[in-house]
Amino acid sequence: MTAPADFARLATEIAREAGEMLLAKRPARPEVVQTKSSPTDVVTALDRAAEELIRARVHQARPDDAILGEEGGATGEGAVRWIVDPIDGTVNFVYGLPDWAVSIAVEVDGEIVAGVVNVVPRAEVFTASLGGGAWLGGERLRCNTGVPLSGALVATGFGYQVGRRTVQAEVLAALMPRIRDVRRAGSAAADLCAVAAGRVDAYYERGPQYWDYAAGGLVATEAGARLGGMHGRPVSPDMTLCAAPGLFEELHDALAGLDPERDE
């Protein structure tokens, strides 16, 4: 059986190669080739090219593994599955903003055992393996602890559909008086790694998909954070909530009274 650390090493190699390709080929303003859930939810040709590269490298190294990718969907079957977001933060990528990432996780029998988030413009590669901790370069990551909700710097994001964004803005407006401040970077994977690195104290968002939070979620939990959904449910597109124990519960309870899982 392949060890989680070995999966993490392979995922790191592939994420680095995909990031180098994206930097080398990114034009001054990448062309949008497709929209998804709304006209502002975009896909570029390089999203597809990066996922094709990642799939090819995974198949070369481990031809029997399954893959779930944001652009190419699910392929293959088996106990080992790779969860791929070739560019998390595509709008940032299009605009030349620095928070976009190649995100690769490895799932064995339904459990994430390795995760890599390459925040390419920042030259930061976050890695984690189950039981092996979370790392940025040679530094082991620890999330901030002992922070009350009133002192918490909280990251969040917004969906692409108008009805969802309207509710998310209402929820944030009600939450703002109860926290230190808010940050919106534009990449769920990068936000989860920011929790792990102590750059923000917490993160919550309705809408991120499995490929958005699979790798970053492991980085965060291996750094000591708690990851989950509302009312004891696991993390899901309904809600991604991440913070150190204690703050997690405070933020959860503040959000629970605002019914954050609804859409207009």
From TrEMBL:
Name this protein carries in UniProt: Inositol-1-monophosphatase
Leader sequence residues: none
Presence of the UniProt keyword 4Fe-4S in the record: no
Cited Pfam families: Inositol_P
Known pathway: Amino-acid biosynthesis; L-histidine biosynthesis; L-histidine from 5-phospho-alpha-D-ribose 1-diphosphate: step 8/9
Cofactor: Mg(2+)
Binding residues annotated for Mg(2+), in chain numbering: 70, 85, 87-88, 212
PROSITE patterns: IMP_1, IMP_2
Organism annotation: Spongiactinospora rosea
Any GO molecular function: inositol monophosphate 1-phosphatase activity
